[in-house]
Amino acid sequence: MFVEHTRTNRWRPLVHPQPSTTDFLGLVLLLYTDDHTEVEFGYRLLPKFWGRGYATEAGRAVVNHAFGDLGLTALCAIIHPNNTASNAVAEKLGFLRTGCTTRLGFNLDHYTLMRDSLINSDDQETTATS
User: Fold this and answer.
1) How many CB atoms lie within 10 A of CB 13?
2) DSSP annotation of 48
3) Which parts of the chain are beta strand (E)?
4) Topology of 2-129 in CATH?
5) 12, 31, 67, 130: which could join 115 in a potential S-S bond, CB 3.0 to 4.6 Å?
6) Buried b (16+ CB within 10 A) or exposed e, 111-125
């Protein structure tokens, strides 16, 4: 996975090619929302790679990068409510639906992931398995 910092202060971790092929899978990104109040997590995969767990795998790496290396405390994800696959990816990563927003005339779900919620869930899993 490669990380690129652009002149617009957007970090773009890119999904590297699948080891067994030279195909580009897609990209995962972190960017400021238009009003610069949140950092948004997003991704795009080529359709032929949908449904194989790549979004969750790459997303987990980007969330870890955001909270660990970058020191962020929260992320958001803005997802169309009919995009059940992306809603599922967000929930697998620990994002919670916290409301809705409108962009370009579309009503979209707003998800939030707090670093502290991941730390607390890790502590609970450790306690439960001990």
Assistant:
1) 20
2) G
3) 2-5, 11-14, 26-32, 39-45, 74-79, 96-103, 106-114
4) Aminopeptidase (3.40.630)
5) 67
6) bbbbbeeeeeeeeee
What pTM does this model have? 0.76
Q: In what order do the strands lie in the sheet with 74-79?
A: 2-5, 11-14, 26-32, 39-45, 74-79, 106-114, 96-103
Per-domain boundaries in the chain:
2-129
pLDDT (tens digit, 0 to 9) for every residue of the chain, 130 residues total? Answer: 444 444 444 444 444 555 565 677 888 889 998 889 999 999 999 898 899 888 998 899 999 999 998 999 999 999 999 999 999 999 999 999 999 999 899 999 999 999 998 776 655 443 333 3
**Integer-rounded Cα radius of gyration of the chain:** 15
